[in-house]
Write a structure and sequence with these properties.
The protein is an alpha+beta fold and about 160 residues long. It has four helices and seven strands; from the N terminus they run βαββααββαββ. The chain has a domain at about 40-145: Molybdopterin cofactor biosynthesis C (MoaC) domain (Alpha-Beta Plaits, 2-Layer Sandwich), CATH 3.30.70.
Length: about 160
C-alpha cells in the first residue's frame, strides 16, 4: 500500500490534487461526550455555567472545520459549502452524541474537516461544563461515512460503531 503523503524518498509532503477531478464530496463524523447523570441533566437543558452550550459548541465546530488546514499540517484549504452539527441525547448513558456533516465540491475530501468539527464540538461542550464536572469523558470519535472522489463511498459498518 502506497502512502499518499510520502514522497519517493519517504518524506512527508502535501499531495498534489491539481490533476484530480472536482466532485461533490461529503463526510459525516461521530463524537461522544459522556458525563455524570447530574451533569447530564444540566447539559441536556442546554444551559451551563457559561451559557448556551449547544449553540456555542456548534459554532466552535463550524469554525474548527473551516480551519482544519491550519491545524493538520498536510490538509488542503477547502472551499466548504456546508457544515452542520446534530446532537442525540442518550439518557441511559448520560451521553451526548455528535454528528457533524461537511460538504464541498472539490478535488479532495472533507473527512478531516468533519472529524475536526466533531472533536471541537466535544471539546467545547467540555469547556462549557468543566466548572460543574471535570470528569467528563470525550470519545470515541470516528468517520461515519464519506462520499465523492476516486475512492467513492465509505460507510462504517454497524458492527464497528461505538
Amino acid at each position: 500500500m502506497k502512502l499518499t503523503h510520502l514522497d519517493s524518498d519517504g518524506k512527508a509532503h502535501m499531495v498534489d490534487v491539481s490533476g484530480k477531478k472536482e466532485t461533490e464530496r461529503e463526510a459525516k463524523a461521530y463524537g461522544r461526550v459522556t458525563m455524570s447523570p447530574k451533569t447530564y441533566k444540566t447539559v441536556k437543558m442546554g444551559q451551563g455555567p457559561k451559557g448556551d452550550i449547544f449553540t456555542v459548541a456548534k459554532i466552535a465546530g463550524i469554525m474548527g472545520a473551516k480551519k482544519t488546514h491550519e491545524l493538520i499540517p498536510l490538509c488542503h484549504p477547502l472551499s466548504i459549502t456546508h457544515i452542520d452539527v446534530n446532537y442525540d441525547f442518550i439518557d441511559k448513558d448520560s451521553a451526548v452524541e455528535i454528528i457533524s456533516t461537511v460538504r464541498t465540491k472539490g478535488q479532495t475530501g472533507v473527512e478531516m474537516e468533519a472529524l475536526t468539527c466533531a472533536t471541537i464540538v466535544a471539546l467545547t461542550i467540555y469547556d462549557m461544563c468543566k466548572a460543574i464536572d471535570k470528569g467528563i469523558e470525550l470519545g470515541p470519535f470516528y468517520l461515519l461515512e464519506k462520499s465523492g472522489g476516486k475512492s467513492g463511498r465509505f460507510e462504517r459498518s454497524p458492527s464497528s460503531k461505538g
